[in-house]
């Protein structure tokens, strides 16, 4: 297996638009756009014009002048650079493995059996390639070891008055400067001995490490990153120097280390000569000084750096260039180019799927589609010691009822009649492609536990010459990764087939709910929505029955029996002992009782229009729905529309406990825990009945989401929150959410179990469910958006031959009342070499797991400890790779595995998120809401939630179906002359630059003047021009990919709303103290060096 030909692995958005291949689009910053915008403002997209005139990253060489010059002073003035002692070493990056979309050149596997690919810059000079992590050996020019005085401000490549040329060129003699073809600029960083760490918990057995000053805030100060941009300016006149892959930083007074410059490896690879430099190559080009900034920022604290050694005057290290560190956009685009065109067939064991951001078709050939299961690692370590050493989490994110695109076949329904599904006698695994038939087909050996089971006579079939059953491809359970079984009565509760489920709508009619309009809106919508209840056959009406309750301090039940002329109301005021006052006529068929139901929905808003009752109950409301389902002996779902903290005297009464003073203290965890145990007990009763609760909240102040959310999150339900609900601007979002929630595919009374082959077992579960034992995940409701994340641990050794198997079986009641089993099978490889593990991981799934793990941990640990342990685990993963898999190189370099090169940027987004590091304006309710929301997210949703999707609309080509290539989430990527669309799965922002062109504004907003754009609009005007139509199509298609409707917010540059928008530019420093990507990468490097030393 050629180690360098492993496909890239990296990260997600929802499935991108059809045909989105990221081809260069003409932009406003240069050529004319097809629809005729003149070139007026060159967008500032990073230093110089690296992105503008040239093709986008990964599709051709970047203009080298752009990388060589100091960046122009952008409108978003970067903070002045900071002078810091050089001991706070900046990493030089190396990531060795081709990143370009073309197929990498072949490398003979014998030369380095276990090094996985790492991302590496392609060179245009003779490329020495001893292994995936490239390393040259040779003497360093002696001048490198000290810098007697700062370099001359106009350092030309050919004249360095003091100190060496900032380059390392293969086969050059010390002191002789050889001109090289123009390639991106190298980075001479000065790296000292490992500096003190930054306040993360000490390793087991390691001495305690000194704390990092101010670690409550960012891991490193963002105004004063551990590097300043005051060093020698980049040579911009002569030819830029060749970029070496590993540049060895040295420190004044230290003996020179080897530079990667001698040709002591194997000969240069054929075909490696002419690759253009990729934006993602060796991470470590330096950015020249910002023009106009002359010196250090005054009074900058010197974070954690030891005092400068009294050596000769140190040259200031340079600020790390954001263009030279791994780019999420580049990785996403590369994956689309490499994996987006061919269907992904699941027949190959241990093959990592395309990223969630790539649009691809799946062909099920024996393993579950990645739409159902994604793993953190597709090569599992053979034993627990190896797993412990690497610290890579072994987990699967499972979405059992995931919807499939129209071009993929939904799982087949298999019916084995009265005998039911065939299973292993010992471990009870269901028949699947991993069962081996023996003795002519009379028995089968289980792939999970190796037990041999008799084949029932009615299931017998002969084997062919390969030992496969001759009907193998006619039976989904023998040839597919995913399928459904019809079950027998033995699989049903109390050994009787279930009744069809019911939906009960419980509407808060207190003063707040009536005043903000939700009562009227819900009643009006339900009149039409009830025609769209879920059904399996679109031509047949739904079996689901419906019921209605309104409430404030008391509950009102409604009899809507078809024979009545008018609905009847029954009031239950004894909320302490809840019961349902009527049996017949509460749950009805929509078609039979339509007239009575419509009459009721017309009357409710009138009945309560003049209410003065402000207090509400909440516990008794759920009890009422539960009792109604018990009385009808069926499972079902409660839709609760609620507006305020339930302070009325009743079970489950709550008090306002919002206390911002606890944030950041050891008691902060209590704010995420429910304030009373009542709801935990109630949730358990709901699960036993198959009663799922969906909660729609319309709060104007604190409602204690942490407590109200206990029942929804324990029953497989959802929470929707519309703070300060205003009908004109929020109605569209609420109604779209409600429609989707009522119509989507859902299973009731579900139990999920994950079986594994001998050697590993499922030990931990994350999601919205209840567990009464250690193996069964119980879900009162399981809809098509919910995921369950499962962590695996070793309990024995695994073998490389057999790999590791898992089978997820979900028993559920369909919306028509049938009891079914949904089966998903997954086989992954096992490896005894760490390098193989690191070659086949999926960063997006790892981040999904880390986020869920961390968000659960805040219930029991202070957020600072949770953040620290995340950084620590990530550092251990990367340090283990560095120590065991990368070829030897200087400690001053950060070397990342190819498939994990985005781990630091994404992990930083999790660390900076509102749950773990909130800004002052983030409410406790919002944090509790997001914590519960992330717990059930799939990988595509968590990807775009933590790293939002940012599209430059000024580059939109209305003639093409392709979207413009996304840009990185950083303010310096925004052009004053541009308009950008940002979405994160919960919000859509349209950011308008102050200098955006009049014609562009006219086409989008119908006005040419920036000042006339209404920032309060929530939908774009439907204008009759191609640009307006295409943009509205894009917004609709982005909304269609997400499980929640995203409200559009228009943000004008320099407007007050811009602060909210900037919160989602996650590569920048955050207001709450979160580090920028550049700073966090340096911090991560320091942590890794600490572990290695």
UniProtKB/TrEMBL annotation:
Q: Which GO terms describe its molecular function?
A: SNARE binding; zinc ion binding
Q: InterPro entries in the record, alphabetically?
A: ADF-H/Gelsolin-like_dom_sf, Beta-sandwich_Sec23_24, Gelsolin-like_dom, Gelsolin-like_dom_sf, Sec23/24_helical_dom, Sec23/24_helical_dom_sf, Sec23/24_trunk_dom, SEC23_SEC24_subfamily
Q: Which family does it belong to?
A: Belongs to the SEC23/SEC24 family. SEC24 subfamily.
Report biased composition (Pro residues) as residue ranges.
101-120
Top-rank lineage group of the source organism: Eukaryota
Any idea where the Gelsolin-like domain is? 964-1035
Q: Which organism is it from?
A: Cyprinus carpio carpio
Q: What is this protein called?
A: SEC24 homolog C, COPII coat complex component
Q: Which PANTHER family match?
A: PROTEIN TRANSPORT PROTEIN SEC24C (PTHR13803:SF5), SEC24-RELATED PROTEIN (PTHR13803)
Q: Which UniProt keywords apply?
A: Cytoplasmic vesicle, Protein transport, Transport
Give the GO terms filed under biological process for this record. Answer: COPII-coated vesicle cargo loading; intracellular protein transport
Q: How does it sit in the membrane?
A: Peripheral membrane protein
Q: Where is the Zinc finger Sec23/Sec24-type domain?
A: 421-459
Stretches the record annotates as Disordered: 1-329
Q: Which Pfam families match?
A: Gelsolin, Sec23_BS, Sec23_helical, Sec23_trunk, zf-Sec23_Sec24
Q: Where is the Sec23/Sec24 helical domain?
A: 843-942
Cite the record's Polar residues compositional bias ranges: 84-93, 121-147
Q: Where does the Sec23/Sec24 beta-sandwich domain lie?
A: 747-830
Residue intervals of the Sec23/Sec24 trunk domain? 498-742
């Amino acid at each position: 297996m050629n180690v360098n030909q492993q496909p890239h692995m990296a990260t997600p958005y929802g499935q991108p638009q059809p045909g989105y291949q990221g081809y260069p689009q003409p932009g406003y910053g240069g050529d004319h756009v097809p629809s005729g915008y003149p070139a007026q403002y060159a967008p500032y997209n990073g230093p110089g014009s690296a992105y503008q005139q040239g093709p986008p990253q990964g599709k051709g060489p970047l203009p080298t002048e752009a990388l060589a010059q100091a960046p122009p002073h952008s409108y978003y003035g970067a903070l002045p650079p900071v002078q810091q002692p050089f001991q706070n070493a900046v990493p030089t990056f190396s990531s060795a493995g081709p990143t370009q979309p073309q197929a990498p050149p072949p490398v003979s596997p014998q030369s380095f059996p276990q090094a996985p690919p790492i991302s590496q810059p392609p060179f245009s000079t003779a490329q020495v390639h001893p292994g995936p992590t490239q390393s040259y050996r040779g003497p360093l020019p002696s001048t490198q070891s000290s810098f007697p005085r700062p370099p001359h401000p106009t350092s030309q490549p050919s004249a360095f008055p003091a100190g060496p040329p900032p380059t390392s060129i293969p086969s050059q003699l010390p002191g002789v400067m050889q001109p090289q073809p123009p390639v991106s600029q190298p980075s001479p960083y000065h790296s000292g001995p490992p500096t003190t760490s930054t306040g993360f918990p000490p390793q087991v057995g390691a001495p305690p490490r000194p704390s990092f000053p101010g670690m409550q805030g960012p891991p490193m100060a963002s105004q004063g990153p551990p590097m300043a941009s005051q060093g020698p300016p980049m040579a911009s006149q002569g030819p830029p120097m060749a970029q070496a892959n590993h540049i060895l930083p040295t420190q004044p007074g230290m003996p020179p280390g080897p530079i990667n410059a001698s040709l002591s490896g194997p000969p240069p690879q054929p075909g490696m000569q002419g690759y253009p430099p990729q934006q993602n190559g060796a991470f470590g080009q330096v950015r020249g000084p910002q023009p106009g900034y002359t010196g250090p920022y005054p009074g900058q604290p010197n974070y954690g750096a030891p005092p400068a050694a009294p050596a000769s005057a140190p040259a200031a290290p340079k600020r790390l260039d954001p263009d030279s560190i791994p780019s999420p956009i580049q990785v996403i685009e590369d994956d689309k180019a490499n994996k987006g065109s061919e269907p992904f067939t699941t027949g190959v064991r241990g093959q990592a799927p395309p990223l969630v951001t790539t649009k691809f078709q799946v062909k099920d050939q024996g393993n579950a589609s990645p739409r159902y299961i994604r793993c953190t690692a597709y090569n599992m370590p053979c034993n627990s010691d190896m797993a412990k050493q690497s610290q890579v989490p072994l987990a699967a994110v499972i979405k059992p009822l995931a919807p499939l695109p129209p071009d993929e076949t939904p799982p087949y329904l298999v019916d084995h009649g009265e005998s039911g599904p065939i299973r292993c006698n010992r471990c009870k695994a269901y028949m699947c492609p991993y069962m081996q038939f023996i003795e002519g087909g009379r028995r089968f050996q289980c792939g999970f536990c190796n037990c041999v089971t008799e084949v029932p006579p009615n299931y017998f079939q002969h084997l062919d010459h390969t030992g496969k059953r001759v009907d193998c491809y006619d039976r989904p359970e023998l040839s597919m990764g995913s399928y459904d079984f019809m079950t027998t009565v033995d699989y049903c509760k109390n050994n009787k087939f279930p009744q069809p489920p019911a939906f009960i709508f419980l509407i808060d009619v207190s003063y707040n709910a009536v005043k903000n309009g939700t009562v009227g809106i819900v009643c009006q919508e339900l009149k039409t929505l009830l025609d769209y209840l879920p059904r399996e056959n679109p031509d047949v009406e739904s079996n689901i029955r419906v019921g209605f309750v309104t409430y404030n301090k008391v509950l009102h039940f409604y009899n809507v029996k078809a024979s009545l002329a008018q609905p009847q109301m029954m009031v239950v005021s004894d909320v302490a002992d809840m019961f349902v006052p009527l049996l017949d006529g509460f749950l009805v068929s929509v078609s039979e009782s339509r007239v009575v139901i419509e009459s009721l929905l017309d009357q409710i808003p009138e009945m309560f229009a003049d209410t003065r009752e402000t207090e509400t109950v909440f516990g008794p409301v759920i009890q009422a729905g539960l009792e109604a389902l018990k009385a009808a002996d069926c499972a079902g779902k409660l839709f609760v529309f609620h507006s305020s903290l339930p302070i009325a005297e009743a079970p489950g009464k709550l008090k306002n406990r919002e206390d911002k003073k606890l944030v950041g203290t050891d008691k902060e965890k209590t704010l995420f825990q429910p304030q009373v145990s009542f709801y935990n007990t109630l949730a358990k009763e709901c699960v036993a009945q198959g009663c799922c609760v969906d909660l729609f909240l319309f709060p104007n102040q604190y409602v204690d989401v942490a407590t109200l959310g206990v029942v929804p999150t324990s029953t497989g339900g959802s929470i929707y929150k519309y703070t300060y609900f205003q009908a004109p601007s929020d109605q569209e979002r609420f109604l779209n959410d409600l429609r989707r929630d009522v119509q989507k595919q859902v299973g009731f009374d579900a139990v999920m179990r994950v079986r594994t082959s001998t050697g590993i077992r499922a030990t931990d579960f994350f999601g919205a469910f209840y567990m009464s034992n250690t193996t069964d995940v119980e879900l009162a409701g399981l809809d098509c958006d919910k995921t369950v994340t499962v962590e695996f641990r070793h309990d024995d050794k695994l073998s490389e031959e057999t790999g590791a198997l898992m089978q997820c079986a979900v028993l559920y009641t369909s919306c028509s009342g049938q009891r079914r089993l949904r089966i998903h099978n997954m086989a992954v490889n096992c490896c005894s070499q760490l390098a193989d593990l690191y070659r086949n991981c999926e960063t997006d799934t790892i981040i999904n797991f880390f986020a869920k793990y961390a968000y659960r941990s805040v219930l029991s640990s202070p957020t600072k400890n949770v953040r620290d342990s995340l950084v620590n685990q990530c550092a251990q993963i990367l340090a283990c790779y560095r120590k065991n898999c990368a070829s030897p190189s200087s400690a001053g370099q950060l070397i990342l595995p190819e498939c994990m090169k985005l781990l630091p940027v994404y992990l930083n987004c999790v660390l900076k998120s509102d749950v773990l590091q909130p800004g002052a304006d983030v409410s406790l309710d919002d944090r509790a809401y997001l914590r519960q929301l992330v717990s059930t997210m799939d990988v595509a949703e968590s990807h775009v939630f933590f790293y939002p999707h940012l599209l430059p609309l000024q580059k939109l080509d209305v003639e093409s179906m392709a979207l413009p290539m996304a840009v990185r989430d950083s303010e310096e990527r925004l052009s004053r002359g541009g308009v950008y669309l940002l979405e994160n799965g919960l919000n859509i922002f349209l950011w308008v630059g102050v200098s955006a062109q009049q014609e562009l504004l006219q086409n989008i907003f119908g006005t040419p003047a920036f000042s006339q754009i209404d920032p309060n609009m929530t939908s774009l005007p439907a204008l009759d021009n191609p640009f307006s139509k295409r943009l509205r199509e894009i917004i609709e298609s982005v909304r269609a990919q997400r499980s929640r409707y995203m409200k559009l917010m228009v943000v004008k540059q320099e407007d007050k709303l811009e602060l909210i928008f900037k919160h989602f530019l996650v590569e920048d420093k955050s207001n709450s103290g979160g580090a920028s990507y550049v700073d966090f990468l340096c911090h991560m490097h320091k942590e890794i060096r600490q572990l290695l030393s």
